[in-house]
Amino acid sequence: MTMQPGTIMRTARRALLALVLLGLCLAAWAQAAGQPAWRISVRDAACSYGPRVQLGEIAEIYGEPPAGLWERLSARELWNNPERTGRQVTVNREQLERLLRHYVPEVGQSWVLPSQLTVQYGGLLLERREIEKKVVEFLTPRAAGLGGEAEFKDFRLPEGVFVDNGSDTVAVDLAGPLAPGRVGLRLTVLTPDGKIVKRLSASVFMNLWKAVPSASKPLNRMHPLEPDDVTFMRRNLAYIPDVWDGSGGPWRIAQPVGKGQPITKAHLEPLPAVARGEKVMLVYQGERIQMAVKAEALSDGDVGQTVAVRNLQTKKEISGTVVDNHTVLVR
Fold it and tell me: With CB atoms counted within 10 Å of each terminal CB, which end of the chain scores lower, N or C?
């Protein structure tokens, strides 16, 4: 049965209205169940600048708190800061929960707490999103040299990097060659005069989408690779190690390749001048006589190498030297 356009529109409006009513019911249920409409989320790293840590320095509020609540709570003083600038204090989740219950008892259970919190007295905190931005800015022009389209994901970075002052910088460098897949990085905190303050390890996963040589049809072992055997298909090189770049040759297939499958270096081997099973001219060359007969190569061989051949007339096997793609010489 085919529905008319008007019927479809009425059905869609009813479905949308039902979703809205469901959302309102869930919100009312949550409020009736005593769930707060706001939460205070504590960061896992922060800097503090006064004699005592203030709540607003280590946390932020989400949701819809009562008017003026956060303005009042954010200035709440907590524990003492260290006496010396640059010193850090780390507390685990259990310790943090006890401290907040003591200093901010009115919040109750409306906390979102990290596994641990590190607070530095003074200095600056370079947050994770800033580090990620630096990494992308560093890698993008370098990945362009690989060709194709690069994507960066699964950043394994510090949640934050503490620096002593605003003049310190964080430099990004490669820990090894740049290639698709997991890329190792080094993060170095430097003073304005180039002194190394600290070193950190990091990494990111790089996808590299590129048109690569692929089999236009199934290719069996020992098959000489011809131009018509190859097509180009867009693939992610992060999951294709040692893909063939289309250069070199002549080649033949060392391992079978399915239709549409990328051709890697492992699929190829050099095509010998004479391949086993090929027909060649077996040339006998002496001081006073030279003759040529048809023969079959019994092994592979390049120019200058010795191969075994079978004389197709006498059926005898003999060894000779490969002269070119069609000739084996016996002296």
Answer: N
Of 72, 100, 122, which residue constitutes the final position of a domain?
Answer: 122
Helices (H) and strands (E) in the chain, counts: 5, 22
Does residue 323 share a domain with residue 249? no
- β-pairing, 196-215 vs 149-156, is antiparallel
Instruction: Please tell me the chain's helix, strand, coil percentages from 3-state DSSP, rounded to the nearest 5.
Output: 25, 40, 35
> Which CA distances in Å does 26 have to 21, 29, 32, 110, 131?
9, 5, 10, 19, 39
Are the CB atoms for 57 and 46 separated by under 8 Å? yes
- What is the torsion angle, in degrees rounded to the nearest 10, for the CA atoms of residue 269, residue 271, residue 275 and residue 277? 80
Residue with tokens 């869930």: 26
Q: Which ranges of 1-145 would DSSP assign to H, the alpha helix? A: 5-32, 55-58, 69-73, 93-103, 128-144
Write the DSSP symbol of residue 257: B
Taking only the tens place, the pLDDT of each residue in 230-255 is 999 999 999 998 999 999 889 999 99
Are 295 and 279 a contacting pair, CB within 8 Å?
Answer: yes
Domain that holds residue 70: 38-122
Q: Would residue 45 be called left, alpha or beta, if left means φ above 0 and alpha means ψ between -120 and 50 degrees?
A: beta
The domain tally of the chain equals: 4
- Residue 18, burial from CB neighbour count under 10 angstroms (0-12, 13-18, 19+): exposed
Task: Spell out a b/e string for 286-298, using b for 16 or more CB atoms within 10 Å of the CB, else e.
Answer: eeeeeeeeebbbe
Max intra-chain CA distance, the chain: 114
Q: Both tokens of residue 179?
A: 């290639």
pLDDT in tens, 241-300: 899 999 988 999 999 999 999 999 999 999 888 888 889 889 988 777 788 889 999 988
